[in-house]
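Side project, low priority. Logging it here so it doesn't get lost.
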Amino acid sequence: MFDGLKDQIKGKVCELGFKNFDDKESRDKLSKKLDEIVGTVFKDRVESSSRVITEAIALYENLLEQQEKAHNETLEQREAEKMWIYEKRQELEQVQNGLEVILSKCTSDSKN
């Protein structure tokens, strides 16, 4: 019984509300209000999306900087390792040359 009364009241409210839309001024006000609401929601969404995009770009820039730094450190480390290897090669060549000198002295001494 209560549900039936509730439905009748809803129907009457809707009927009266729709009568208001029959006049042009009410439709224009409603249209203007809807435009404002849609505009505000759209603007908020655009601003929110823009903020997220800006944060994502900053994050990617930071990652790129970190990768570049790691890459440069790796290059510097490789150059240092190459220099160390070059220096050890020179030291070994000097030792080899010294051994050859000693060997040649030993062979020349043994001939005398």
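Brief comment: Helices lie at 2-20, 24-111.
Revisit when time allows.
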